[in-house]
Amino acid sequence: MSAVLGVAMVGCGGDAVSEPVDLGPKPPAGWDETVRGPAALDRNPDPNVVEVDLEARTVMVEYKPGVPVETWTYGGGSPGPLIRVPQGARLIVHFTNNLPEETTVHWHGVRLPAAMDGVPDHSQPAVPPGGHFDYDFIVPDAGLFWYHPHVRSVVQVADGLYGPLLVESRTGFDRSKAGNAPELGPELVLVLSDVALTTDGHRVTRTRACEPPACRTTLVSASCTMR
Ligand SMILES: [Cu+2]
Fold first, then answer.
1. pLDDT tens for residues 124-141?
2. Between residues 140 and 21, which one has the greater pLDDT?
3. 139: CA distance to ligand 1 center in Å?
4. Hey, how many other C-beta atoms are within 10 angstroms of the C-beta on 49?
5. Which of 40, 158, 163, 212 is in Cβ range 3.0-4.6 Å of 52 for a Cys bridge?
6. How far is the CA of 117 from the centre of ligand 1 (A)?
């Protein structure tokens, strides 16, 4: 989606890690405390199953201090929580829609059965307000992906609905093949979002057009440590 300029890499201190992987140098304690983003909690003890809850709901966010803006979120934050899964594991996401309109969750770039792809009227009925849907699939490929709605995507993503999905390689990252790898520092997941706000701090929406210079853009980012 155009609202997300980039989703860049790797890892977070969430509880979804099931198998140890050598990730190289560890960051010093506390180094990321001011930038760490949320991570989904894995509530399944099986190391080959990651099972999380995901709720879509609106919250008020002050991009500009003192000016609350209605933001559509996964789990109360934008971006939504990092979901971290070992490659080849089964991911179960218990999704609840507490938005004022229907939605779905699409797992961007992930190879999965069509029924889990979150495309309304093709793979599943849209999830109505107050409704639930259980996504349940194997993640076959390592990499950094993201999730977002597939209902009025341009609007719902722009309103704040997106989050990172990290599928962690079973074999880890071979730093000996990465040039100056020993110089690499701690790895991060970064989610960069282009959020258009009016000069008084309100979100530019389909009903509030952005007409420069009456608007400005704010960059929102989140990151978290690899452990
Ligand atoms: Cu997508």
1. 999 999 999 999 999 999
2. 140
3. 16
4. 17
5. 40
6. 10
In the numeric block, the tokens 């003192």 are attached to 66
Greatest Cα-to-Cα distance within the chain, rounded to the nearest angstrom:
53
Q: What is the DSSP string of 74-90?
A: ETTBSS--BEEEETT-E
4-222 has CATH 2.40.30.10 classification: no
Q: What is the pLDDT of residues 83-125, one digit of tens each?
A: 999 999 999 999 999 999 999 999 999 999 999 999 998 999 9
Ion ligand 1 neighbours (CB, 5 A) are 108
Is pLDDT of 56 > 90?
A: yes
Reported as half-sphere exposure (CB side, CA atoms, 13 A), residue 5 has a value of 11
Q: What's the gap in Å between 173 CA and the centre of ligand 1?
A: 26
Residue 26 Cα to ligand 1 midpoint, Å, equals: 32
Tell how far the Cα of 12 is from the centroid of ligand 1, in angstroms.
Answer: 22
Q: State the pTM of this model.
A: 0.76
* Ligand 1 centroid, distance to 69 Cα (angstroms): 25
Domain boundaries, the chain: 4-222
- What sign does the CA torsion over 163, 168, 174, 175 have? positive
